[in-house]
Each structure stands twice: as C-alpha cells, then as structure tokens.
Write a structure and sequence with these properties.
single chain, 134 residues, alpha+beta, two-stranded antiparallel sheet
C-alpha cells in the first residue's frame, strides 16, 4: 500500500482466498514546506528569433519529493525480492502513485507483481484493507 506520503509493506499470512495481512514495515515521507524544498523563481526563455520571451513553469517541489519517495519504495520492494523476503507482490495505490510506481518497477519487480489495486488504502486499518483482497 502506498501513496505519496506513506507506504505499508505487508505480508499475507493466510491463504490466497482469505488473506490475513500482517504489517512488516511502514515508510513515511514528511513533506517539508515549499520554501525548504526549493527557492529559485521560475526561469524565462528567449526565442532564437526576435525579442520574445516566455516563462518556464515553476517546479512542483512537493510532486518531485513524492516521486522520489515512491521510487524509493519500488527500490525497497526490489531489495525484498533480491533477498528472498518476498516472492510475489500485490501493489495498492491511488492512480497517480501507481503510475509513478509502475515507471520505477525494475525487471524483477515487474515479474513479481501479481496484481495492482487502484485505490488509496494506506490509511485504512488492516481489517479494512483485507476486505479489498477477499
């Protein structure tokens, strides 16, 4: 389970048709204030012809920090596969986070993903999360 600020790594200790999830790790990403993430103002570009210039969009530092966090989660899952902590994985994340995670899948993780749940479940109690896998 993951979103841009929190990730839960869980293990199914029950059968596939009646999962019993057990929390193994929690990873949290604290989002600092924007002024702590970056201080540069948006830049400007100048065309090669004439005197026109245009603004460059402001970097979304929070978005970049969330992407970095989700990429670190994907790396942690890759490490779990490499060390035989896990053999197969199911990912649950909201659409935007799932998109970032998919882009960060390595070859081993891509092969080990058995399913994806396109929902934000990370802040639900474990009992509620299990209901989405029954």
């Amino acid at each position: 389970m993951a979103d841009g600020a929190k990730a839960l790594i869980m293990e199914n200790t029950g059968p596939l048709n009646a999962p019993r999830l057990k929390e193994i790790e929690t990873h949290a990403h604290k989002s600092p204030a924007t002024h702590e993430l970056g201080s540069d103002a948006p830049g400007r570009t100048h065309g090669s012809f004439g005197h026109a210039s245009s603004a460059v969009s402001q970097t979304d530092w929070h978005d970049q920090a969330e992407r970095n966090f989700l990429e670190s989660v994907a790396k942690r899952l890759e490490a779990a596969l490499a060390s035989d902590e896990a053999k197969s994985i199911v990912i649950a994340a909201p659409p935007r986070a799932l998109h970032v995670l998919r882009a960060a899948y390595g070859k081993a993780l891509r092969a080990a993903v058995r399913g994806e749940v396109n929902k934000d479940l990370v802040n639900l109690p474990i009992v509620e999360i299990q209901k989405h896998f029954d």
